Amino acid sequence: DSADKGEYRHYMLKEIYEQPKVIKATMEGRVTASRVLEQALGTEAGKLLENVRHVQIIACGTSYHAGMVARYWIEELAGVPCSVEVASEFRYRKHVIQPDTLFLCISQSGETADTLAALRQAKAAGFRAALAICNVPGSSLVRESDLVIMTQAGPEIGVASTKAFTTQLTALLLFTLALARHNGLSEQQEAEIIAAIHQLPGQVEQVLALDSDIAELARAFMDKNHSLFLGRGAMYPVAQEGALKLKEISYIHAEAYPAGELKHGPLALVDSEMPVVTVAPNNDLVEKLKSNLEEVRARGGELFVFADKAAEVKAGDGIHVLQIPPVHPITAPIVYTVPLQLLSYHVAVLKGTDVDQPRNLAKSVTVE
Ligand code: G6P
């Protein structure tokens, strides 16, 4: 039962370990072996998605990072332009609304004040419709949106969001495929990605089996004050989410950068006191990423790389490599999030912080 820690020391760890199950639950009834069941996303989904020409995503915190990943998917698979913004910025500026724009809010709780305010504004502003991706049935966000895709994460107690994020990504990928079908994605491409989605629970299980290796790596962070997280493409928001987790629960300053931006500033900070964490699935950016890693190494930075074997990142002096099972490039953001969650968790445990209730933070920010 979700309100019970069971055999786990913290809710956060329990929730990390629930991911294979809740990702599966979020797929359930919404996919066959090769297709997304569009009507399972809402009876009106087909009619609505057919005419969407632009997507505006709004969220806060971890949910914002899910939106950032979705932008890569939506533009790559559906060819539909997509903008993503944090709710607290969106609600206080003038914006230009493109015709036929779908407004998409992502929120675990469905009660975040800024996200709700942005939705209420959007409804008055002429968006085509409002879609919510949410984890709490009956929440304000669910009640006030035109179309809802529920994540099936179950109650999330730990303030640092984990299973809500990976189920948001799962729901967002299903949404993207449904949208992409109206925009030229072939049946064969859809089937290939659905097959990759079906592999997710097993792949996340395999990453969870690396837990004790990740706990070992965590030791190197205990006495550090700063860290950098690097990724490219859709792995950049995964790096952002990894950095957010470390900040939230271990109180170590963590900054995420798209790896290609290193040379425009953060490289000046790199020395042996600045661990650099990188996510390196085998995709068409991996060679570029590897040359970024060499730049870090040449400045004495210690690297912690989560990598696909085929990426051929060699472990060595100052380079720690943990192998992640081979994954499809589209689903890689979901799988590669998990080692970063475990890394932050173990650093926080070693530091003795209050993992489930980090200082100054709330699970749901219902006031501005
Ligand atoms: C708070 C929580 C975060 C969460 C964010 C957005 O800051 O501590 O974990 O990501 O709110 O919450 P929501 O419920 O809208 O996803």
Radius of gyration, taken over Cα atoms and rounded to an integer in Å? 20 Å
Oligomer: single chain
How do the helices and strands follow one another from N- to C-terminus? HHHEHEHEHEHEHHHHEHEEHEEH
Shape, per Cα inertia axes: globular
Bound compounds, each kind once, are:
6-O-phosphono-alpha-D-glucopyranose
Main pleated sheet: 5 strands, parallel
Strand proportion, as a percent range, falls in 15-25%
Low-confidence stretches: none
Distance between the termini: 32 Å
**Care to count the β-strands?**
10
Overall pLDDT, averaged? 95
Category from helices, strands and their pairing: alpha/beta
Reading side by side through the largest sheet, how are the strands ordered?
2-1-3-4-5
Q: How many H/I helical runs? A: 14
Helical content band: 40-55%
Short description:
With 368 residues, this protein is an alpha/beta fold.
Characterization of this structure:
- By secondary structure, the protein is of the alpha/beta class.
- The protein is 43% helix and 15% strand.
- It has helices at residues 11-17, 19-27, 45-50, 61-78, 87-90, 113-125, 140-144, 163-181, 187-198, 200-208, 211-218, 235-250, 286-298, 332-351, and strands at residues 54-59, 82-86, 101-107, 129-134, 147-150, 226-231, 253-258, 276-280, 303-308, 319-324.
- The protein has a five-stranded parallel sheet with strand order 2-1-3-4-5, sandwiched between helices. The protein has a five-stranded parallel sheet with strand order 7-6-8-9-10, with helices on both faces.
- Helix 7 links the parallel strand 4 (129-134) and strand 5.
- Helix 4 (61-78) runs parallel beside helix 8 (163-181) and helix 10 packs parallel to helix 14 (332-351).
- The model has no long low-confidence stretch (mean pLDDT 95).
